[in-house]
Write a structure and sequence with these properties.
- The protein has 8 helices and 8 strands; from the N terminus they run ββααααβαβαβαβαββ.
- By secondary structure, the protein is of the alpha/beta class.
- The protein has 2 domains: 138 residues, Rossmann fold, CATH 3.40.50; 65 residues, Putative phosphatase, domain 2 (DNA polymerase, domain 1), CATH 1.10.150.240.
- The strands form 2 sheets. A 6-stranded parallel beta sheet has the order 5-4-1-6-7-8, sandwiched between helices.
- Helix 6 links the parallel strand 4 and strand 5.
- Helix 1 crosses helix 4.
- The longest helix has 16 residues.
- The N and C termini lie close together (7 Å).
- The mean pLDDT is 94.
């Protein structure tokens, strides 16, 4: 069981929300419009977490395509533009996320999002899913000088919340989240079923591993 913290910092994709269906749809749209084969949602889910360019490069490699840099850039732009208009078509919060946020909010904990997702997608997604009202701070991938796994986004968030490193818990699903938390000196809880690229989350050595979000509550 985890202790109570004054602040809870949440990763977004693969932690709070399963965004793979919409990211996969956007990836498919860009590939098929260019005359290439598409990908499945499960494939897209394996490639999320290191940015849109990484996801696209994995799809290109999967299909053994050979593209110029400019052709790849055009595909990426189409991918991002399509996604911007469809950030919440099929994305949904994971089981017990809303209940957990409600419980923490009622306990007067400070809540924040710390994601590598660019702000142009982060803010509309939170708004579309009615999650934006929970968070006092939202640090996106282009907010801090460096994204996770650097400590910058977490330290910036703690500064905005006026919270010390010993009173905050980072809640994530990937090596980027665990790396950033350790670099910043905060405790970290890791979602076993998020976007962790097939890696056993225990191998990342977080402070806590959970299967459902409500397990991070100190009352469980």
């Amino acid at each position: 069981m985890l202790r109570q913290y004054d602040a809870y910092l949440f990763d977004l994709d693969g932690t709070l929300v399963d965004t793979a269906p919409d990211l996969g749809q956007a990836l498919n749209a860009s590939l098929r419009n260019a005359g290439f084969p598409g990908v499945t949602t499960d494939q897209a889910r394996q490639w999320i977490g290191f940015g849109a360019r990484y996801s696209l490069s994995q799809a290109i490699e999967h299909h053994q395509l050979v593209l110029t840099t400019s052709a790849t850039d055009e595909l990426l732009e189409e991918f991002l533009n399509f996604y911007a208009g469809h950030v919440a078509d099929a994305s949904t919060p994971y089981d017990s996320v809303i209940d957990t946020l409600d419980a923490l909010h009622d306990a007067d904990a400070k809540l924040a999002v710390v994601t590598n997702k660019p702000a142009r997608f982060t803010l509309p997604l939170l708004s579309a899913l009615s999650l934006d009202g929970y968070f006092e701070s939202v640090i996106s991938g282009d907010t801090a000088p460096q994204p996770k796994p650097a400590a910058d986004p977490i330290l910036l968030c703690l500064k905005e919340l006026n919270i010390g490193i010993d009173q905050a818990l980072m809640v994530g699903d990937s090596s980027a989240d665990v790396g950033a938390a350790k670099a910043a000196g905060v405790d970290v809880a890791c979602f076993r079923h998020g976007y962790n690229h097939g890696m056993d989350v225990h191998a990342m050595e977080p402070n806590f591993v959970f299967d459902r979000m409500r397990e991070i509550l100190p009352t469980i």
